[in-house]
Every structure is written in C-alpha cells, then in structure tokens.
Amino acid sequence: MPVHSKRGETLSHSPIRVLMPYARAAKAAGTHVYHLNIGQPDIQTPPEALEAIRNNKETIIPYGPSEGLPGLRERVANYYQSFAGDIAYSDVFVTTGASEAILFALFSCCDEFDEVIIPEPFYANYLGFGHTSSIRIVPIPSSIDTEFQLPNAEKFEELITPNTKAIFLCNPGNPTGCLYSKEELTKLMQIVLKYDLFLIVDEVYREFCYDEVFTSVLSFREMDQHVIVIDSISKVFSSCGARVGFLVTRNKEIQKVVEKYAQLRLCPPYYGQKLAEVCYDHADEYIPQARAEYIRRRKVLYDSLRQIEGVQCYLPKAAFYNMTKLPVKDANDFCKWLLTDFTYEGSTVMLAPGSGFYQHKAYGLDQVRIAYILNEHDLSAAVECLKIALDQYNNRNGHEGNNYFLSEKSPNRVYAPTNDM
Amino acid sequence: MPVHSKRGETLSHSPIRVLMPYARAAKAAGTHVYHLNIGQPDIQTPPEALEAIRNNKETIIPYGPSEGLPGLRERVANYYQSFAGDIAYSDVFVTTGASEAILFALFSCCDEFDEVIIPEPFYANYLGFGHTSSIRIVPIPSSIDTEFQLPNAEKFEELITPNTKAIFLCNPGNPTGCLYSKEELTKLMQIVLKYDLFLIVDEVYREFCYDEVFTSVLSFREMDQHVIVIDSISKVFSSCGARVGFLVTRNKEIQKVVEKYAQLRLCPPYYGQKLAEVCYDHADEYIPQARAEYIRRRKVLYDSLRQIEGVQCYLPKAAFYNMTKLPVKDANDFCKWLLTDFTYEGSTVMLAPGSGFYQHKAYGLDQVRIAYILNEHDLSAAVECLKIALDQYNNRNGHEGNNYFLSEKSPNRVYAPTNDM
Q1: CA dihedral of residues B206, B209, B212, B218 (deg, nearest 10)
Q2: Fold for domain B47-284?
Q3: What is the rounded average pLDDT for all residues in chain B?
Q4: Which of B264, B270, B275, B375 to mutate to test the interface with A (most CBs of A within 10 A)?
C-alpha cells in the first residue's frame, strides 16, 4: 500500500474542529450545545443579497474571470476609498475566501524556508497555510496581561533574519479581539521600510471595532509596495459559506504573480460573488446594525464572564472574540470534558482551547477563545453554563488539579502553578 | 521595494488564457470571436438545479462541513455505484472545483521533489499544480499518430525511479479526446501494483464517451488503496462557475490527510453544492441529452476539419476536445495572428496553442486544441473561418514560412520541416 506524504502527516488538525466528534456525540445524546467555539455568526446574511440570488436569471453558470467579477471588484475598490485611500479596480483580486487569499499572498511573497513573523496567539489556520506554502512562521509573543497589544517594534527587529520576508498581522485580531492603533502601526511601518519586508494584514474584522477608529495598513501610502491586505465577506456579511474573499495590493509585481495563481484555479465561485456584489450595495445600512448587535453581545459576555471566580478576561476592542484565562490547568481537557461529561439543564458549552492559537504549544494552556456569536439570551445562558461547569470540573472527586491560587494583584486573575508560560 | 517570490516568477501563465488580452482587443474593435479555445460548454445548466437555487430559503449562508454537505456526498456516492462499484459516503470529499481536488491529491500523496508520471500532452494547469506542490512532473509522450493512446506499460516502467510516487492520468483526455480502454488500464495496473504507486485519475469527462464504454480506475478493486479519482460538476453539468469538484478514494490513510487539507480551507462553496445536489438528482435525464449534443458537434467538427488541406485530425472518442495538427510552423504565432490580424466576415477564431499542453516546449508547436463547445451552426462557421485564415496566413506577403510539404502517406497530413519533434 503506498504511503501518504510526510507533509500530509505533519500538517496539524484544526484545533477548533478537533472537538467536533465529541460535540456530535453530545448532540446525538440529546444535549444542547452552545457553540462559542467557532466564528460563525448567527446574524442574517443581507436579505437583499439573498433575494438577488433568488432572482438570478442565468441559464448557464460559466467560468468567470480569474481575478473575479468586474462588478464585484469595482464595488470593493469603491468601498475601500473611505479607509484606505485610492484603490483601483485592478488592485482587488477576488479569492475563494480569505483562506485562498492568504495562500496566494504567501506563495507570491515567499519562497520555501522564508520566514514570516506573526504575533501570537494567532488564527490557528495560519500555521496550516505556512505549512502548505513551506514557509517558516516565527511567532512573536503578545500577552493577555496587556490585552494582546502589538509587541514593540524592537521585539520584531530582534527576530528579523536574512530569511525574513514578511510580517503578518491580523487586525482586528482573531482570537484576541485586539485592535492595533495607528501609533502602533506607524512604529511597525518603520521596521517594514527599514528591512524592506512585505506586510500582510488580515483585516476581515475591520468593520467590528467598538471603541476606537480602525486604521488600515493601506492608508500608509509610504508602504504601497509593501502592503497586502486579506479580506472576506464571511464575517462582515455573515456569509461564511459563500467562500468569497479578497487580496488587495497596490504592488503591481505582486499583482502579476497573484494573477498567475488565480488563473491556475480558474475562478472564484459565481454565486458567492453575485451575493457579495449586493452585500456591498447595502453595506451602509447593514454593517452598523450588525456592529450594534455585537456591542450588545460583548457587554453581556464581558459582564457575565467577570463574575466567574478565577476567570481573567478583558473587554475586547474589536472582532467578536476574546481570549479568556480559565481556572483550569489544561483547557484542552476541560473543553473535551464539557462535551463528554457535563450538562446543565440539558445543555453544555463548546469552546476553542487557547493553546491551538499558539505555535509554542505550552502557551495558552489555561486559555480559551470565546466567540460572542450567539444572541444575548443564549450568550447569557452559555456563560451561566460555563460557570457551573468550572465549579463542577474543579471539584470532581479525585481531581488532581484544584491547586490554584488567586493572584494578589487581581481577585479575578489566577495562575496555574506550572512552568507553562 | 520587496521582491516577489522566485516560485511566483517561475510559475507559468495559463497558455489558454495568455491570448485573452488579444481577444479582448479584437472584440473591442468589433470583431466576433468564436471561442474554440476554452472548455466552457454553452449547454444550459440543469434548469431544475438553477430553480432550486432560486427557491433557496436560507437566511444565513454559514460554513458547511469541510468534507462537503452530507446530501451531496451521499448523492455522489450513489452515482458512482454503476461504474465504480461500492463507494461509501465517507470516500467522497467535496472540493472547490477539480483544481482543488488535484492539489489535495498531490499534497496528500507526494512530498517535495517526488515524481509523478503524466502522459503528455496534458491539461496545462497540471504543470501549475505540480509547481505549487513542489513535485516533479515527468511527462511520458503520446502521439497524435496513435490518437494519443496510453503509452505501453513498459514505457512507464522506464521512467520509474525511487522518487516516483504516482502516475497521473486524465481519462477521458483533455486536450486529446482520447479514451483509455479497460485493457490499457489493466496493463497499467500491473505497474501501479508492482511499484506500489498512487494512481490519480482525472475523470471529469467520463460522461462524454461516444463510441466505447468508459472504465473507471475505481472499478479495479485490487487498486483500492492506490486509486484517487478527481471529479467535477463543471463540464458534465455545464456548471464551471459553481466551483464544485470531488476527490474520491477508498484509501483511509489518504482520507485522513485530505480531511486536514479540507479543514484548513474551512469548506467548499455552499450555493455550488446545493446546485450540485439537484444536478445529480436529474443526471439520468440530463446527461444523455448533453452527450447527444456533443456527438452532433463532434461530427460537424471532424467532417469540416478534414476538408481543410494540410490539417491532420482524428475522430475523438470522448470529452469535447481534439488536438489538431495545422499546416503552420508555430501555432502560438498563428493563434495570436488570428486575433490581431485577421477577420472573415467580421469574425475570427480563438484556439488554444498545442505547445501549452506539453512540458517539452518544442513539442506540439504545430498543434492546437479545439474544443467543440459551440452549437453546430457556430462550429461550422468557426471552422470555415479557420480554413480561410490558414490560407491567408500561409500566403502572406514576405511570409518566411510556406515551406510545408504534404506527406506521401496521407494527403491531409503535413510536416513542418523543423527539428521540433
């Protein structure tokens, strides 16, 4: 029997999806599962966009242009004017989700063994995209104690080697809910220009900033040749299954290379693009409503989480995630236990274990990512469920853990007595 | 300014799409272009499938399962029973077009620098997929003189090295229209088993066989652990823009690896999958009609092509392509000239230069791939246009070519006096 590839063997499973079999089993056993583990919004897709698909009169669904439908590229270019400055139609490539845009960016900018610096914790699939493109991801730690703010420019500089080709950010941050300020990005720009690096920024959550103004790296015109932005309709228009993303850059040489990768896979999905066109037509009405909804949910989540003893959390500035430190030794075990051994009033909670968002596998063991993508009522019930679960988990008979102590600095902050971080 | 990757530089442009700017310019100048260059059928997508999308009542377009929607995987598994034997639901992975299925197969089976043997001429993008996955494509020549039949098993054996990991076929063939027989595949199976190789077969044209019965490699149960089939709804259901393909294998170890690559890109497009479900529900009525239409077109193309002096062609057994030898030295130049310098009654023809389908760049210089994807009337007019064009091209003032001679063996066969093949 022929043997699969070594790279296929070493590619990691998605840490978010690894618990899915347990969730399926829990549901099969009749347990209701509150999904706080995945960035799948429950907000409706813009109804006008859905209606446009219902009214579609095409009799053939043909290949479209590799770069995307002209009508969509134009709308996206227009939409970018307000926060990015002048963006041409030809600066926008439609991709099959942000996933494909990230792969195109890595393949176009980097060769095998090139290094890309990424603040950690980061969206777990970045590791997989790095693996697929044979680049080396160099994590730069950020901490829950500073609410995951961007590491100092000097910290980046320390990690730069002759093999460093790019810095990769997610802003606003998944899994952190962090928003990088104009000042932080300006300092980083000096490094990018000094070392002549690419700056690839995943901005898919840009419309969900709740307290401060979002700054796009595309607005730093000194970096026109360095910046590549990753975007998607998945989160902003609650259209994850449409598989429509974007790669935006003003660098013409990169455009020529991206065009080749785009031609290779022929075209992005037709229906998703038609949906996206109408989404952008209605962005001005739709997005503020979605944003207001997430602000309400953020408050519910934050207010209820901080009532739980031993939990360390913060008010996330953006996106719809936060990283939360739980009074457990190993959140992987706790998250699995929630699905296999716990119910409260017929329900349980599914969370994404924090260590999956770190390359340093010993980091984040006591953290979870919580996505506030449920309505306020369900979110409240889910956190109540989590509270009961933590209590039960830490008071199990014969439980070897429970050796936690409260920090003197903060009554809500606990440290596991391990050498993990 | 940071410099793009070397691999991005060395990735080839799609030879099929490289003429597109000239076609756009011709159209802008008012010329009608008959597209015989691209495998985009003009046959209608199954109307019931389009109607199902119009009746879709979903209010959110969410992520689906990474492996594809259960309803679609079940339908595809059922559809496979008749020609492949028993296929389980879990043997079918839905992908974003056949393109993604090919990449998944190469990444899952092969490591960097592994070798994959492919009969040439082959679908040009295989080169790009090989480039992206850092494997080495080893072409094995097949000839227009034998209508591109499968090279002898011994010829494959000669090319096998310790680095050979797989044999890759396209059956029925793009660009050749060739159909590999059960006998040919049985002989190849001996090699596959003897050297314990993977056998990856792109079967997207399997429903378009016109004279003989199609044999799927999945029906050779001795090769259950070796075979991976690539499939797609694009051609068979005239749904190229839906971006729905499949990877089918009974090898559980490969399934585990494919699952990881599938999770990495989250899921295939939702609407395309819903369309595909209904396509398979209506396959029994739809496919025979489409097949009959291509049989009529094949006759029109073949009958009219063989009337042109100096043209060598054959009656293709399957798919909707044939490779045709033209009385020109360099079909790249001729195909460009058709778009930039020629019109006949306001029209011209776009063809795919044959050399783009060969890795050996000196091969196929006098060949073109012709796709018979236009209706009979247009196809007739297009070939008439081609005939006039060849005459004009070869009688241009100061034309350096024209030094062709007819072979004594066949009045319709010409050889360019070059050392190219």
Answers
A1: 0
A2: Aspartate Aminotransferase; domain 2 (3.40.640)
A3: 92
A4: B264
Determine the pLDDT at residue B354.
Answer: 95
Q: Where do you find CATH 3.90.1150.10 in chain B?
A: 6-44+286-396+411-415
Neighboring chain A residues of B253 at a CB cutoff of 8 Å: 1, 3-4
- Minimal CA separation from B59 to chain A, in Å: 6
Question: Tell me, what's the pLDDT at B41?
Answer: 87
Nearest CA in chain B to A106: B5
Q: Which of A1, A3, A5 to mutate to test the interface with B (most CBs of B within 10 A)?
A: A5
Cβ–Cβ gap B196/A1 under 8 Å: yes
Q: Which residues of chain A have a CB within 8 Å of the CB of B99?
A: 264-266
> Minimal Cα–Cα distance from B35 to chain A, Å?
13
> Residue A413 has what pLDDT?
33
Residues B208-232: what's their mean pLDDT? 98
> Are B60 and A54 within 8 A, CB to CB?
no
Res. A241: pLDDT tops 70: yes
Report pLDDT for B398: 55
Give mean pLDDT, residues A93-101: 98
Q: Boundaries of CATH 3.40.640.10 in chain B? A: 47-284
User: How close B246 gets to chain A, by Cα (Å)?
Assistant: 14
On whether the A6-44+286-396 domain is CATH 3.90.1150.10, my answer is: yes
Mean pLDDT computed over A59-77:
96
Local confidence band at B410 (pLDDT 50, 70, 90 cut-offs): very low
Q: Among partner residues B38, B134, B263, which is closest to A134 by beta-carbon distance?
A: B134
- pLDDT value at residue A40: 83
CATH of span A47-283: 3.40.640.10
Average pLDDT over residues A254-268: 96
Residues of chain A with CATH 3.90.1150.10: 6-44+286-396
CATH architecture of B6-44+286-396+411-415: Alpha-Beta Complex (3.90)
CB-nearest to A260 from B13, B166, B275 is B13
Please give the average per-residue pLDDT across A205-220, as a whole number.
Answer: 98
- Could you read off the pLDDT of A339-356 as tens digits, one per residue? 999 999 999 999 999 999
Tens of pLDDT, residue by residue over B104-120, are 999 999 999 999 999 99
Considering the entire predicted model, what is its pTM? 0.93
For chain A, give every residue range classified as CATH 3.40.640.10: 47-283
Chain A residues touching B272 at Cβ < 8 A: 269-271
Q: Does B5 sit within 8 Å of A108, measured CB to CB?
A: yes
